[in-house]
Amino acid sequence: MFDIAIDKDQPAAEFYADLTSSAAAIVSGEPDAIANMANVAALIWQYVPDLNWAGFYRVVDGELLLGPFQGKVACIRIAIGSGVCGTAAASGLAQRVADVDAFPGHIACDAESRSELVIPIVKNGSVIAVLDLDSPLPNRFDADDETGMVKLIGAIANSLG
Ligand code: SME
């Protein structure tokens, strides 16, 4: 069993440092990427406030395929280049969307989602998956959330594929 305690109310830099340490601890020594994605999705879901979906899409046979997540039943396959996730996968750049209704091609899996943060996961120079976070609040994610999540994913990317 993992003994995880993260203060949700501390400043963003400290919060994300703690979240990253915990993520690194739970994937440590485990080679299975799916198991690691499942636990990281659960960790984020438990500690990051105001989310209605948190999880992964993996690049499989040239498209994004639903991976481990927490939240409502979701779209299974997304073309690279489509929607927020597909744009992150195609560009290799994090996508921070304050208003999903204003994002061309946004794919609504849960009608409650208002804002979204997607982080591409790069291994050996290629995007192998994305982390997708949705919130029912408009403009939920700020630059600190993006920086923190990019660092978290960078720290554990080798354990996610
Ligand atoms: N909204 C995403 C699709 C994935 S679901 O939100 C879980 C997108 O536009 O890529």
Class from secondary-structure proportions? alpha+beta
Helical percentage: 25-40%
Whole-number tally of structural domains: 1
CATH topology: Beta-Lactamase
CATH architecture call: 2-Layer Sandwich
Q: Name the ligand types.
A: methionine sulfoxide
Q: What is the topology, as strand order, of the major beta sheet?
A: 3-2-1-6-5-4
For CATH, the homologous superfamily is named as GAF domain
Element-level helix/strand string: HHEEEHEEEH
Structure commentary:
- By secondary structure, this protein is of the alpha+beta class.
- It has a single domain, classed as 2-Layer Sandwich (Beta-Lactamase).
- Helix content is 34%, strand content 26%.
- It has helices at residues 12-27, 33-47, 83-91, 143-156; strands at 53-60, 63-71, 77-79, 95-97, 115-123, 126-135.
- Strand 2 and strand 3 (77-79) form a beta hairpin.
- It starts with 11 loop residues before the first helix and ends in a 5-residue tail after the last helix.
- It binds methionine sulfoxide.
- Methionine sulfoxide (SME) binds at residues 53, 74-75, 78, 83-86, 106-107, 109, 113, 116, 132, 134.
Write the layout of secondary structure elements.
Layout: H1 12-27, H2 33-47, E1 53-60, E2 63-71, E3 77-79, H3 83-91, E4 95-97, E5 115-123, E6 126-135, H4 143-156
Antiparallel strand pairs: 1-2, 1-6, 2-3, 4-5, 5-6
Helix pairs in contact: 1-2, 1-4
Bound molecules: methionine sulfoxide.
